[in-house]
Write a structure and sequence with these properties.
This is DNA oxidative demethylase ALKBH2 isoform X2. Belongs to the alkB family. InterPro entries: AlkB-like (IPR027450), AlkB-like_sf (IPR037151), ALKBH2 (IPR032852), Oxoglu/Fe-dep_dioxygenase_dom (IPR005123). It comes from Punica granatum. It is globular and about 45 Å long. The protein has a single domain, classed as Jelly Rolls (Sandwich). The protein is built from two helices and 13 strands; from the N terminus they run E-E-E-E-E-H-E-E-E-E-E-E-H-E-E. The protein starts with 10 loop residues before the first strand and ends with a strand. It is mainly beta. Bound molecules: 2-oxoglutaric acid and fe (ii) ion (FE2).
C-alpha cells in the first residue's frame, strides 16, 4: 500500500516572489509573464494553462493534450520561483512546470493523478499557489482486488473498499503556499480543485515536476 506523504501544513514561500506574476493575477482574459502572453483556455481546458520545460525533454501528453513546451528563459519570473523552490526542497531538480490560471470560481481541474510515465513511478511534485485561495482535494483510488480471489461469493468488483474519511484530504491553498506531493501520491491518490460559485478572483498555480530524460 502506498503512502501519502504531505506536510501537515503546506510550506509557505516569500510572497514577494510573485511580483512578476502580478499581471496574470488580474482578471482580464489575457495575462502575461514577463514579456510573454499566456492565452486563455488553451485547447478547451476549463482554465488557462502554460507548459514550461528545459530543452530536449520528451513531450508531455496528458488527458489528450500535448502542450507546446516554452523555455525557462522566456519566463524569467518563473525561473526565479523555480530557484526558490529548489532552495526550499534541496535534492530536487525540477525541469518542467505546468502553470494553471483559474480566472474565477468557474475554472477548475477535475479529478486526476499526475501519473504520466515520463515522471517516473514516485514523482515529487511541488505545487505553488498565488492569488485567490482555493480548496484542493485528495481522494484515495479504490484499492485493486484481484478478480481471481473470492472469499464470500460476492464478485470482487462489488467488494471494492468504500472510501472513508481517512481516504480523503483537503487543503485550502493560500497565496504563497507550497504543497508537496511525493512517494506514491500519484499512484494511489487522485486530486482536484473544484468549481466554487462565490469565487471571483484569479488564482495561479505552478506545479514543478521532474521529467525523466
Ligand atoms: O491547481 C492546483 O492546485 C492543482 C493543479 C494540478 O493538479 C495539475 O496541474 O496537475
Ligand atoms: Fe495534478
Amino acid at each position: 500500500m502506498g503512502t501519502l506523504r504531505l506536510p501537515r501544513q503546506p510550506h509557505s514561500l516569500d510572497p514577494t516572489h510573485h511580483t512578476g506574476l502580478r499581471p496574470l493575477l488580474r482578471s482580464d482574459r489575457m495575462g502575461s509573464v514577463g514579456c510573454r502572453h499566456i492565452s486563455c483556455s488553451q485547447q478547451n481546458q476549463p482554465r488557462d494553462t502554460c507548459y514550461v520545460a528545459s530543452a530536449g525533454l520528451p513531450d508531455l501528453v496528458y488527458s489528450g493534450y500535448s502542450p507546446r513546451a516554452y523555455l525557462w528563459d522566456e519566463f524569467p519570473p518563473l525561473k526565479e520561483i523555480l530557484e526558490m523552490v529548489h532552495k526550499a526542497l534541496p535534492g530536487n531538480r525540477f525541469n518542467s512546470l505546468l502553470l494553471n490560471r483559474y480566472k474565477g470560481g468557474n475554472d477548475y481541474v477535475g479529478w486526476h493523478s499526475d501519473d504520466e510515465k515520463l515522471y517516473g513511478s514516485a514523482p515529487e511534485i511541488a505545487s505553488v499557489s498565488f492569488g485567490c485561495e482555493r480548496e484542493f482535494f485528495l481522494k484515495k483510488k479504490p484499492s485493486k482486488i484481484s478478480h481471481a480471489v473470492r472469499t464470500d461469493g460476492e464478485p470482487a468488483s462489488k467488494r471494492a473498499r468504500k472510501n472513508t474519511d481517512s481516504d480523503q484530504r483537503s487543503f485550502m491553498l493560500k497565496h504563497g503556499s507550497m504543497l508537496v506531493m511525493r512517494g506514491y501520491t500519484q499512484r494511489d491518490w487522485i486530486h482536484s480543485v473544484p468549481k466554487r460559485a462565490k469565487v471571483e478572483a484569479v488564482r495561479i498555480n505552478l506545479t514543478f515536476r521532474h521529467v525523466l530524460s
